[in-house]
Design goal:
This protein is mainly α. It has a domain of about 80 residues. It is about 65% helix and about 10% strand. It contains 3 helices and 2 strands, in the order ααββα. A two-stranded antiparallel ribbon has the order 1-2. β1 and β2 form a beta hairpin.
């Protein structure tokens, strides 16, 4: 089979072995991003060592400012994840009900030719 000019363009567009994205390359990228985020958090903690008084419900005490802010961030993330999780659960239940009701509805009857 002879390759024409059009065939050469498509062959050049194909990735070489090892160039395509894999799960391992995605995990490696996530790991690098995670390490960078941890370094930024560590720098934040080391630069904010002054003590702050913290009061939460019945708890009170002194913590380094950075640790108190990180606790607040984690608590906020937990609240956001909880609301998001409940919303996903709600949408799944609605979809399940719609599928269940859709399977109980009889298929539309074919038009009969006797109607004249």
């Amino acid at each position: 089979m002879v390759e024409g000019p059009a065939d050469q363009g498509t062959a050049a567009d194909k990735p070489f072995p090892g160039e395509r994205k894999t799960r391992l390359s995605g995990a490696w990228t996530a790991l690098v991003i995670g390490v960078v985020v941890l370094v930024v958090i560590l720098v934040f903690i080391l630069q904010n060592q002054q003590s702050a008084e913290v009061n939460f419900l019945i708890f009170q005490g002194h913590l380094p400012l950075a640790v108190a802010l990180l606790f607040a961030m984690v608590l906020g993330a937990v609240v956001v994840l909880a609301f998001g999780g409940f919303r996903i659960l709600q949408l799944r239940l609605v979809a399940r009900r719609a599928r269940h009701q859709g399977s109980q509805v009889p298929p539309p009857a074919a038009e009969s030719t006797e109607e004249q």
